[in-house]
Amino acid sequence: MDLQLTGKVAIVTGASRGIGRAIAQTLAQEGMAVAAVARDEAKLRELAGEIERAGGRCLVQAADLRFPAAPAEVVRTVVAHFGGIDLLVNNAGATKRGDFLTLADEDWADGYALKFFGAMRLCREAWPQLSGRRGSIVNIVGVGGRTGSAEFAIGGSVNAALLNLTKCLADRGVGDQVRVNAINPGWIRTDRLAARVEKFAKEQGMSPEEAEKALAAELKVARFGDSEEIAAMVAFLASGQAGYMQGSIVDIDGGMTRTL
Hints:
A seven-stranded parallel beta sheet has the order 3-2-1-4-5-6-7, sandwiched between helices. Helix 2 links the parallel strand 2 (33-38) and strand 3. It is an alpha/beta fold. It is built from eight helices and seven strands, in the order βαβαβαβαβαβαααβ. It folds into two domains: 9-188 and 225-252, Rossmann fold (3-Layer(aba) Sandwich), CATH 3.40.50; 189-224, no CATH class. Helix 4 (105-132) packs parallel to helix 5. It is 49% helix and 14% strand.
């Protein structure tokens, strides 16, 4: 399927590893020029090298989106380099897990600073460009925003806020001709998941392969997901094939979320 993304410009945050890296690679393969944003410049340059060797275009943007001025600088640089923006993928952000009673104010502030406020500010800064080019936003959020759990108080509330922001911006986007949608990944094979599997394996005296199967069974899913599966949905949502999707929240979690 030709998604007709060739020649368009995307910003992808959290692009140095995991889901973000897969998204940047997939969009580049679809012909988009990619501005890859993250704090780890070395990892971004590795990604850019891979994309450019395959014939694509990639702009490295090493930035800490927790700082209020960073999103505006990212947008200015991308517009100056590529001439505009057609897609914003907000993927950056990790939140601390733990006992609610022991999580400090600083943990909460840090959780919101990157994943929510970083995304919000990027949406605000990129909006005029996206509106002028009938572009789109895809927020990578997470199933914890729909189903609360005791150890994920920060992440769950941040995700819920970002899902609500998705709906708010989608409402405005109808008039401004900007499509805004979100993806809720479940457990995806990333470095973070690998660390959790390794820890579980040691605790249970299992091999990593056994631990992964046991964790998947505990969640009542057949398997964990791959970053490329999230990336494929991002490319679809960015394309005209998803032109009637506005304010949609897509769960890609192997059936983990069983509520409406």
